[in-house]
Every structure is written in C-alpha cells, then in structure tokens.
Fold:
Amino acid sequence: MADERALSRSSLVVEDAARRHDDGDRRLFYDFRALLEENFSRHWTVPEYARRLKCTPLRLNGVCRAFTRQTANGVILGRLGEEARRLLVFTTAPAAHIATRLGFQEPSYFTRFFRRQNGMTPGEFRQRQ
Structure:
C-alpha cells in the first residue's frame, strides 16, 4: 500500500512538472533535439550546444532533466548510441566504418563507448540481432 502511494505521488510530481513547462523551455528542448539530430556525430559538448542555443549549460541541463530525466550529455550520448545500434542492425558495414561515420577518431573508442552504453561490444550486439 505504501509503495502504491509513493508511485502515485511520483506520478503526480511528473505530471505537475510537465504542466509547469513554459513555452520557452519546450522550445529550447525542441531546438536542442533538432540541433542534436544534425550534429550528434560531431561530438559537441554541452557548452557548445548551449552556446549555439544562446543559453547556459546549466539551463540546457535543467530543461533536459525536466523533459527526459537525463542531463543534456545523457541525451547526446543516448542519441549517439541509438544511431550506433541502428547502423549495426540495418547495415553490413564493419564496426570500424560505423565508428568513423559516427565521428570516433579510433575504432577502439567506439567499442568502449558502445560497451558502456549497451553492456556488450558492437560485434556481440550484431550477433544477437
């Protein structure tokens, strides 16, 4: 019963936070996602995205947390990981080529990133698909 009440309160907090988003926050988040979609393979930092969006990294992180419960960096890394998984599933390109396409300077950096994100190497991931 206590768990149900905690879940209920948690849901109300999330719903209340969603109602409190003003149009400026919503616009910033959508603009960030659009900019990220165009540039995720460039490996820009949160301050770089914030500079281009004419806001502070703190504000960008706050807006991302409000909408996704992740920091801006978490959103960036998540998008990069999503594209890596997509390319591994839908292409036959070697992981080294995918690494280059996604902006990694070395295939080993890509492999480490992918393992951290998914708990397995790109090759293991591809075999399981």
Remarks:
- Helices lie at 2-20, 23-39, 46-52, 57-68, 72-90, 95-101, 107-118, 122-128.
- The two ends are 40 Å apart (CA to CA).
